[in-house]
Every structure is written in C-alpha cells, then in structure tokens.
Write a structure and sequence with these properties.
The chain has 675 residues and is an alpha+beta fold. The chain contains 22 helices and 23 strands. Strands 1, 2, 4, 5 and 12 form a five-stranded mixed β-sheet that branches. Strands 13-14-18-20-21 form a five-stranded mixed β-sheet, sandwiched between helices.
C-alpha cells in the first residue's frame, strides 16, 4: 500500500492520515471483519486521460484507504493459490511478469514462424464482467464467505460527487482485487486458446493470438468470439482484425514489423495522462450511513447522528451495547429490514439490496443475514428483488403507512408432513389440546404479574391495587382446575381486564390510559400496543412456518379462515413481558409523546407519525436484541418457543410455555428441544 501510494477515497482520508493512527484503524478493521460487521464505503469516481492529450478517457473507481488495505490482504492471500492455476499466456498483474516479457514472447513466436495474428479487443471489458459468472468461478475455488466478500467489493456503488450510483456489472479499475479477478474471469479464454495451432499472449484485456496460417487465425478468432459469448462479453468489431507481421502490429505500446520491434518508452519516461475529473469527498452525513456497524438489526430511516433533511440514515441501527446485543450460536438472530420512507424503491444489485429515493441510493446492504423485510406504506419492490428474496427464503410483509398489517409474501418451505400430522393429531386430542390452552393462559397470567412487579419494584401498590394483584393471583390458581373452554376464556378475559387496569398505576408518562381499547385505538398507548402486538404476531407466524407447522391450527384460539391461530396462541405469553413493557418503558421515558400520533382524515383511530414510526421501530429492534449476561434475547426466545412447541408435538406431550423473567435471564437450553 505504501509503495503504491494512491489518493484518498470518498472519506477524504489519505494513506498518510490513516498511517498516523494505523494501530487503531487496523484493530477496528480487523474486529469488524471478524465479527461480520464490515461494510465497504462507496467507490470514488476519477476520470483520467487514456493518453496525454487524448479525448478518450478511462474511469477509475477507487476504494477508500481502509477498504484498499483489506482488499490487498485478500488479493495477496488468494494470488498464491490462483498463480498455480493461471496459465503462462497471461502477463498482467502477476509477479515476475509484465509488458517486457509479453513483448519478448511475441518476438519469440514471430521468429518461430507464427506469422498470422488475431489482433483482438474486448468491448469495455472491465465494465462488463458479469457478477453472476464471476461468483460461480469463485465458488468453485473459495468458500461462500470469501466469494461473497469479493463480489460485494465488485458490486460496490460509486460516488460521483453528487450522488451514490449503483452498478450492474463490471470490476472497478482502482480496486486492489480487480486485477486478480480480471485474470480469473478470462481463464476460460486462456485454456481454450492453449492449443498447438494458436498461441495466446494476453495482458489483462489486451491480447493477440498468433498462428502459422491465415485459416488457423480465422478459426482462433471464431473460437475467441464463442468463448467470450459464454462469459457475456463480446469483441469490439472495429478494433478486432486479422493481420500479419508483414502489415505490422501495435500491441502494448510497441510496434512490431516482420523483423523489428520499436518500444517508444525506451527512449524516455512513458508519458501519463492527466486527471480530467475527480469527485469531491462524500459529505460526513452520507458517510455515517455506511460507517455504522452492521449487526443483526436493520431499521431504515431512523433519526440518528447522520440524520438528514429526509430522515434517512442508511438504515443501520446498532441497538444496545454490543456486549449485550451480540447474538451467537444456534439461535443467532437475523436482520429485520424496515422500510418506511414513502416513495422509496427496493432493488437488487448483485448480492445486495439497494433502497433508492429520488434516484439516490440511501441504503445498501447485503442480504446474507436478512430474514424479514417489512414495508410500511407506498414502498415499491422490483420484480428482481422480489424473486431474490423468495429464492433466499426471506419473508416480505406489507403494512399500511400507519402500521396495520396487510399481508405477507412467504417463500415456499418444505414442511415436514409428519410434523403437521402430529400437530393435527394433538389438536384432535381434546384433553391434550385443552391442557395446552390452559398452560398458555396460566403462563400469560404469571407473566402479567411478573411485569407488574417490575414496574413497581420499590413503590408499594395503592391498597386497592394490591387487592387487584392478589385477586389476579387467586384467579390464576383456578385455571388449572377449569374443565371447560368457556370457563378458561372467561378467566383469561377477566384477568387481562384487571391487569390492564393496574397498568394505570405504572403509567408515569402523562399520556391517558383508559384501559385496553382494541381497534380502533383511540389513544396513543393503545395505538402503540396494537402496533407492537402486530409485529409480534407476524414474527411468530414466520417462525411457525419456517419450522414447518401450520400457523392456522391453534389450541387456544379458535380456528378460522385466514386467522394465524397458532401464532396468536404463542403470542399470548409474550404480550405482557415484551410488548407491554416496551410501550410503557418508551412512554415513561418520554420517548413517545401525544404529538407523535395523529388520525388522518377518513381513518379510524390513531397512528404514529412517519418520524415517530422510525424511532419506534429502531427502539423495538434494540429491545428485541437486548441481552443480559448469560441470558437470551427476546428474538431468540421467540424462536426457542416455537422449537419447544414442535418438540412437544412430536412427542405428543405439549410443552411448558415461556415464563418471564427467568427464561430470558437463563437463556435457552437447546438440548431440551431435541427430539
């Protein structure tokens, strides 16, 4: 890196500036890469003359210094293995090779009688390398992680000084890994022309094929066109021709005749073309969209340090402290992408998803860790992006702008028929089904009492409230003795009503609390509760389907057309410890206000304003990923709950529902769900 020097990238950081704090910068880069949080910055666009005084130009796309360091490390490690595979016919970007050796090889072949020449030129080679073909080549040689990282670099957008622009194909000239990949991509051509009749001499995308006869030269030209077609490349018809040394050849700046070679640069320094244009560095606010670490949560458009006039931050939220939110092991959380900015478009580009607004890229993320995309309001998704999401097993859910669920697009999943038969068999066994329903209601009541206790850890309840708490505890004890579903639902309803009444004593926000009011919600707290319940139900529905169960066949909630009864069963035990605690915590901290809600003309009930919706979604994700030492996140608990249920159904024994707070504090015991 220091030997090559080079300019700063979009962040304006020069090599010398980075070197001044190299120890810290390299440590951060190493940590981000190891943790999977590394994200490259966009490339900087630079236009240079191909030759001094020429109108023809070449566009360079240059990574920032820290990205060049990591790319150089990859290129150095990979080149050792690739060198063993590369044929002798290529001379560019390889150790111990270069222009002089390529010219010497042509001289040798000419003197051996290879007189006829295919003087070829690939049309816009570096700009037309197909990422799909390149990735296939890489996957034959390297791991999916390495191949994915290399393609991410190749597919990086670029900054032109005013906008971030996406690319559809090509390897950026200016990237340290591009030369290596450019040579790899043309390996099929090198192998196809490695015959007795034709001799290839290739320097990057410039090459000639030497033959003894004109017919052999024509055959070599036809074969070249065929091989390049398979690589989704084509020859430039005006710059490709058949010739021979009697007519002369100009290649790599040298002039060849039938018995001489003239290399002009041997007479003096080779002149360099000047820089025609260089994009100015990217503004700080734009850079922050890319600098934020990528963790298991993506909440687009949340106000933060990089908040712009439109409220776009590039969509990355780090959540709580990294030590508390890092997810690992079998229950590793995946990313949830929320799109709320009206009029934005979700597109696919290589192995990444791009969000565009007003023809600008405002979010650029890989979808390797993506599990669910949630769209609020008027968000467009291209056909290519939809196909890719379905192919990768990523759910796509649609909500109104105010958060009302409309529907989901779910990838086909290979459900285990035996598991669904076990679910049906358990449902048909009324005593077992009823026992599971009672277990859910018991856990819901217990969790509600535990939540009330957390809201009043030091302050005694008013005397009337103490009586209500005691009454709830007494009613909860009667659930186990109930023998009829009507009685069970009666207990569930009366306990819930008393619980929601007691939440009034926990409300320090100043927002009104009339008790639980469902659709339409007439006050901010109820509106926010309903919204969070919707998010929980959708997440559990996806988890249930991903495990191969039928989300519509529940044990507590009656089955009905289109109703996710099983997801509704599972959500009951999480309502109070997850959604209620979240809403009351936000309200009591003053993070949601009455002014954050409104009732659009013609709409029923209240809904969050766009800005408040973004803040709430970011806070929700931090909440879902928060972890106490030794415990598990809420998102892990949801996934574990579904797996516990599946294991119980397979054994026809039911399961023990989630209990708060112990199941969060103790973490999940994966062995307990092994069947």
């Amino acid at each position: 890196m220091l030997e090559n020097q080079g300019c700063a990238g979009v962040d304006g950081v020069t090599l010398h500036q980075f070197s001044a704090e190299a120890a810290l910068g390299l440590a951060i880069l190493r940590r981000e890469h190891s943790a999977g949080d590394y994200r490259p910055l966009p490339l900087l666009r630079i236009v240079v003359e191909k030759k001094p005084g020429s109108k023809a130009t070449r566009t360079l796309l240059v990574p920032c210094v820290r990205d060049r360091i990591l790319q150089t490390a990859y290129a150095t490690a990979l080149s050792r293995a690739f060198e063993e595979e590369f044929l002798e016919v290529s001379y560019a970007y390889r150790p111990g090779r270069g222009v002089d050796r390529a010219i010497a090889r042509i001289r040798q072949l000419r003197d051996e009688g290879y007189w006829h020449i295919v003087d070829a030129d690939i049309r816009g080679y570096f700009d037309h390398v197909d990422w799909g073909v390149l990735k296939g080549m890489l996957l034959e040689r390297e791991s999916a992680a390495v191949a994915g990282q290399l393609i991410d670099w190749m597919a990086a957008p670029y900054w032109d000084g005013a906008r971030v622009r996406r690319r559809q194909r090509g390897v950026p000239q200016g990237s340290p890994v591009s030369p290596l990949l450019a040579n790899l991509y043309l390996q099929p051509l090198d192998r196809a022309l490695a015959t007795r009749d034709s001799k290839l001499v290739r320097y990057a995308d410039d090459f000639v094929v030497l033959t003894r006869t004109e017919a052999q030269a024509q055959a070599a030209l036809d074969l070249t066109a065929e091989v390049l077609g398979g690589l989704k490349l084509e020859l430039h018809p005006e710059k490709t021709s058949l010739t021979h040394f009697g007519e002369g050849l100009r290649f790599l700046g040298a002039y060849f005749t039938k018995d001489e070679i003239w290399q002009p640069w041997k007479d003096g320094p080779k002149p360099q073309g000047r820089v025609v244009a260089m994009a100015k560095p990217m503004p700080w606010a734009w850079l922050e969209r890319y600098r934020a670490p990528l963790v298991a949560v993506l909440a687009q458009g949340v106000k933060g340090p990089a908040h712009s006039g439109r409220g776009l931050t590039g969509g990355i939220q780090s959540g709580a402290k990294s030590a508390e939110t890092k997810v690992s092991g079998e229950g590793e959380d995946m990313a949830y992408l929320y799109l709320t900015e009206q009029g934005s478009v979700l597109r696919k580009s290589g192995d990444r998803l791009l969000v565009e607004l007003d023809q600008q890229i405002v979010l650029d993320v890989p979808y390797t860790k993506l599990e669910h995309v949630l769209l609020f309001g008027h968000i467009q998704v291209t056909t290519q992006a939809t196909h890719e999401l379905l192919e990768k097993g990523i759910d796509l859910s649609y909500f109104t702008r105010g958060g009302q669920f409309r529907g989901s697009l779910t990838p086909p999943r290979s459900a285990n028929v035996q598991d669904r038969l076990a679910q049906l068999k358990f449902w048909q066994n009324e005593p077992a089904s009823f026992a599971m329903a009672k277990a859910v209601v018991e856990a819901k009541a217990a969790n509600g009492l535990a939540v009330l206790k957390t809201f009043q850890p030091n302050e005694p309840w008013p005397e009337s409230s103490q009586a209500q708490v005691a009454w709830i505890a007494g009613q909860a004890l009667k659930i186990a003795e109930t023998e009829h579903r009507e009685s069970l639902m009666g207990y569930e309803g009366t306990i819930a009503k008393a619980y929601f009444g007691l939440l009034a004593d926990c409300n320090k926000s100043g927002l009104p609390w009339p008790g639980r009011v469902k659709f339409p919600s007439t006050d901010p707290l109820n509106a926010l509760l309903s919204f969070c319940y919707t998010l929980l139900v959708q997440e559990l529905s996806s988890l249930v389907e991903s495990e191969g169960l039928d989300p519509c066949l529940g044990f507590l909630h009656a089955i009905d057309r289109g109703r996710p009864s099983l997801a509704l069963d599972l959500v009951e035990v999480f309502r109070h410890p997850v959604a209620d605690r979240f809403v009351w915590t936000l309200a009591n901290r003053g993070e949601v206000l009455a002014s954050d809600f409104g009732s659009p003309e013609g709409a029923k009930g209240l809904r969050l304003s766009p800005g408040a919706l973004k803040r709430v979604l970011a806070a929700w994700e931090r909440w879902m990923l928060a972890r106490k030492p030794g415990g598990q996140t809420i998102r892990e608990a949801l996934r574990f709950e579904v797996r516990k249920l599946l294991a119980g159904l397979r054994r026809q024994e039911g399961f023990v529902p989630f209990r708060y707070p112990e199941d969060l504090e103790q973490g999940c015991a994966t062995s307990s769900v092994t069947t």
